[in-house]
Amino acid sequence: MWDLRALVSQVGAAYNADMRVKNRRTLFVTFRPALFDALRDYSRTRFLQDLSAGATVGIVALPLAMAFAMASGLKPEAGLFTAIIAGFLISALGGSRVQIGGPAGAFIVIVYGIVERYGLANLIIATAMSGVLLFLLGLFKLGTLIRFIPVAVVIGFTNGIAVLIALSQIKDFLGLRVSTMPADFVGIVLALSGALNTLNPHALGLAGACLAVIVGWPLLLTRMKQRQRWLTHLAIIPGSVIVLVLAPMAVAVLGLQVETIGSRFGGIPSNLPRFVWPEFSWDSIRFLLVPALTLTLLGAIESLLCARVADGIAGGHHNPNQELMAQGVANFVTPFFGGMPATGTMARTMTNIKSGAKSPVAGMVHAATLLFIVLLGAPLAQHIPLATLAAILMFIAWNMGEWREFAQLRQFRLPYRITLLSVFFLTVMVDLTVAVEVGLSAACLTFIYRISSLSRSEQVSPTDHPLLTQQPGTVNAYRLHGALFFGAIQLVEAMEAQLPDRALVLDLKNVIYVDSTGVDALINLIHACEQNNTRLIICGLQHQPLDMAHRSGLLTLIPPENRYPDLVSGLTVASASVTASAIS
Predict the structure, then answer these.
(1) Which of 291, 363, 295, 299 is nearest to 327 (CA)?
(2) Which partner for 339 in 50, 82, 286, 572 could form a disulfide, CB atoms 3.0-4.6 Å apart?
(3) Going by CATH, does the domain composed of 456-583 fall within 3.90.1480.10?
(4) Are strands 475-484 and 503-514 parallel, antiparallel or unpaired?
(5) What is the domain partition of the chain in residue ranges?
(6) How many angstroms separate the CA atoms of 36 and 9, rounded?
(7) Within 13 Å of residue 493, how many CA atoms lie on the same side as its CB?
(8) What is the distance between the alpha carbons of residues 288 and 299, in angstroms, rounded to a whole number?
(9) For residues 577 and 501, what is the distance between their CA atoms, to the nearest angstrom?
């Protein structure tokens, strides 16, 4: 085993040497999983820690994987196969040392909607398409751009998804008889309200008891472990695993009449998944582009946010581009083996860290543990009550939401509040895709407004620079501040309407950014000055504005004698030219 470790270290060293030779700036990112670096100084102690952590996370992931799949309108094995295949690939190929991948609650609403509208075969295609898009995002170094999505948008749709998850579980929590559950909010509410007369007291009692155990288990351990030190080791086992064991026993002993996985789905298979190739066409791909983009965006946000939080707790730094490429590979491969979309998962990642994981090997062990359970313990899963899984998802939905943000909304500016609430209500009432589109559009408009309001132009007065008092009205000078972009070109356009007789001095020292529209505005100002026989002097071009002026050809329109490093130099030259003109 440890000879293999030495071989891996040699391969990693050779890979590093080769990359140093080829070290050059390219458009593409280097494909280098975090596993390579983790295995360089790997030891027996670390392996035992990873083995223990991975086995613990595998047990924790069992009920979550089945619950997420069933809430998405799929069979429970879809979640298990996703946790096994995608979990292994994300850990083996990802850019984080401790992140665990698999089915996530954030996908429930989207997957359920895709299955209802387009069918299971098209879900496979949409998931595979999102895998390709995720891989391309990482390949082209776009992983860092995900963090620029505003917090208001993320919180809005996260809370909205949490509400929809809880709403979708009311049926099994109450044991209602609903033949077909709609995908939209209004349809769900109407279907649930119309089936309230079918409430099952056994299901409600069992679900309520399971929820109480899930909530009370960590509180009980906190009190008891102060007296009994050995109980500290039980803290890593969540309440969801406890109820998963106790609930089937309670049903059998008490003779409760509740639905189980076996009664609804006939249990889960105890063999490996088979490869499935769906029928598709280019029309289908075009038709599924929007759902695929939604899965891509949500998967990227979830995985990178989870990886960032994991870095803060476990230490180290993840590679966002490598993580996205691993997510892409996992989401492309998994659906063809009966799986569903996968991403980084917060609860399982935190369990992995708390259990002492040291490397991606723990995530690979987690997938192997699930595979072992499926192969040997599948017959036992048919006895798990659906009310228990509903209670688990209710608890996850509550922990998933950032509910404190609603209470603290008064502390934020109006645009933030509008963005957060609009995304939240659109997610719940309309559709997640529409909510994200509206939220990002609102955030972009707010950003453009804020940047344009911070960009300003101020005319230099004669009291600031005595050079302007020599020939009043013949020389005007302006300082520009902020960004000269499409939202602030009116600052330059206003100068064209008040051109002086002799010279216009423009100080761009405090301009931090110029876009193509800003360049066009400056070119138009140059032409207007030429027609008015006004000398245009540009001062303080530096950094990005200077680079943009080079690339756009703007500097070729401004002769060297009209370019100066600071405002004083420009005003001195402008005043001298005016004086010389007056003498002549």
Answers:
(1) 299
(2) 82
(3) no
(4) parallel
(5) 42-150+278-384, 416-453, 456-583
(6) 8
(7) 9
(8) 16
(9) 12
332 vs 46: CA distance, rounded Å: 31
In Å, what is the CA distance from 239 to each residue of 60, 220, 341, 374, 475? 9, 11, 25, 21, 77
525: nearest Cα among 484, 564, 565, 566: 484
Question: Using CA atoms, how far apart are residues 122 and 294, in angstroms rounded to an integer?
Answer: 14
CA gap 296, 283 in Å, rounded: 20
Cα-Cα end-to-end distance for the chain: 93
Give every CB contact of residue 14 below 8 A, 6+ residues apart in sequence. none
pLDDT tens digits, 171-182: 999 999 887 777
DSSP strands (E only) in 404-531: 456-459, 475-484, 503-514
Cβ 574 vs Cβ 535: under 8 Å:
yes
Token pair, residue 404, equals 């404190």
In sequence order, what E strands does 213-330 have? none
Chain CA centroid to CA 206, Å: 35
Q: Judge whether residue 279 has pLDDT over 70.
A: yes
Distance CA 119, CA 103 (A): 19
pLDDT tens-digit series, residues 74-130: 998 999 999 999 999 999 999 999 999 999 887 888 898 889 888 888 999 999 999
What are the structure tokens assigned to 365, written together?
């062990």
Q: Which amino acid is at 259?
A: E
How far is Cα 80 from Cα 105, in angstroms, rounded to an integer?
A: 14
Question: Can you list the positions of beta strands (E) in 333-459?
Answer: 343-344, 456-459
Q: Is it the case that residue 155 has pLDDT exceeding 80?
A: yes
Instruction: Tell me the C-alpha distance between 66 and 162, whole Å.
Output: 18
The DSSP output letter for 260 is B
Q: Are strands 101-102 and 343-344 parallel, antiparallel or unpaired?
A: antiparallel
* Residues 340 and 106 sit within 8 Å (Cβ to Cβ): no
Contact 505, 477 (CB under 8 A): yes
